[in-house]
Amino acid sequence: MFLWRLNHNSLPVRNNLKRRKVKTETLCPMCKRLDEDCGHVFFKCKKAQECWRELQMEDARCCLVQCRSGKKMVEKIWKMQADQQLKIVVWMWRWWTARNKANAGERVQSAGEVCSSVHYHLEEFAKLKRPAKHRDQPQKWKPPAGEQYKLNVDAAFSALTKRGGWGCVVRNNTGEVMDIGAGNINRAGSALHAEALAALYGLERAEQLGMTRIIVETDASNLYKALTTRLMDGGPEGALFRQIRLAMNRNFVSVSISVCPRSCNRVADSMANYGVAAFPDGGHAFWCQAPSFVNDLVSGDFPGAEGL
Predict the structure, then answer these.
(1) What is the number of domains present in the chain?
(2) 142 in any annotated domain
(3) Half-sphere exposure of 78 (CA within 13 A, CB side)
(4) Domain span at residue 124?
(5) Are residues 230 and 171 in the same domain?
(6) Which of 191, 139, 201 is nearest to 169 (CA)?
(7) pTM of model > 0.85
(8) What distance in Å separates the CA atoms of residue 252 and residue 171, rounded to the nearest whole number?
(9) Quick one: 165 and 206 in the same domain?
(10) Which of 26, 149, 233, 294 reaches 20 to 30 Å from 96, CA-CA?
(11) 259 Ramachandran zone, left/alpha/beta (phi>0; psi -120 to 50)
């Protein structure tokens, strides 16, 4: 629908509203410097140009800004390579969303915030293209035994932006969610660095809640190696690995680390992706019960539930 309206120049930019006899201010709500039409809001606005540069698409912007109509612009986009088509369209859609929020009086998002959202959605589209691995009986999450709690952790990371998100969920021996959290990672050196931060934040939360017997479960085998041996202490994240091991030894009666398939870590994975988009300023949040968007994943992990 967004592309159709863009193609027909029917997006409610301020100049279009004025042309339809709507009394409104015509200055761009993002830069507040020039009148807002489609050409300005997507290509000429100073803040939009910052995004094009950060996404390394300045050449594409210079090409599209020459188009004299929305139809010509869309036609030119369709002639580009598929990955560039998607990147441009996703950016324009996310920029239009940010523009609408600013137009409604909300804070103007920074170029970094908008671009982080673009990368998040591109990664989600990429997941749809990956061939599914067919298994007769995919492994499922298993609850801990006795009085232990299981802490699942995961991270999302973009090598291009060096940003990401983390997620964690603590459940008891019946599969009930005791606590669940997500946050944004403004800077990480690697995917392993992001995974280690997820483990650290999850363990800190478990300690705050007074949980003393913990099983930490991750789908990152390199994180397991980093936290159960000293073989990776000489690397750039060595100090972080030592900090986590020290916290495990000091703050818990018993703690162990295990590696699980991705199919057993779906809740933490979903929370990590949520953290990327929900907290662009580097924030985080914890809930005592699962948010609605992961309810199905949590229910699917209950003992006896059918595999999704």
Answers:
(1) 2
(2) no
(3) 8
(4) 2-128
(5) yes
(6) 201
(7) no
(8) 16
(9) yes
(10) 294
(11) beta
Residues 81 and 111 reside in one and the same domain:
yes
Q: Is residue 306 part of a domain?
A: no
Query: What is the amino acid identity at position 123?
Result: E
Assess whether 120 and 153 both reside in one domain: no
β-pair type (213-218, 149-158): parallel
What six digits make up the tokens of 287? 């809930």
Q: Per the domain annotation, does 206 fall within a domain?
A: yes
Q: Which of 272, 266, 263, 273 is nearest to 295 (CA)?
A: 266
Q: Which residues contact 104 (CB under 8 A, 6 or more apart)?
A: none
Domain boundary among 97, 128, 159: 128
Closest CA to 141 of 149, 152, 127, 156: 152
Digit-by-digit pLDDT tens for the chain (308 residues) are 998 998 988 899 999 899 889 988 899 999 999 999 999 999 999 999 999 999 999 999 999 999 989 899 999 999 999 999 999 999 999 999 999 999 999 988 888 888 888 988 888 888 888 776 555 567 889 999 989 999 999 999 998 889 999 999 999 999 999 999 999 999 999 999 999 999 999 999 999 999 999 999 999 999 999 999 999 999 999 999 999 999 999 999 999 999 999 999 999 999 999 999 888 778 999 999 999 989 999 999 887 765 44
Of 128, 157, 173, the domain-final residue: 128
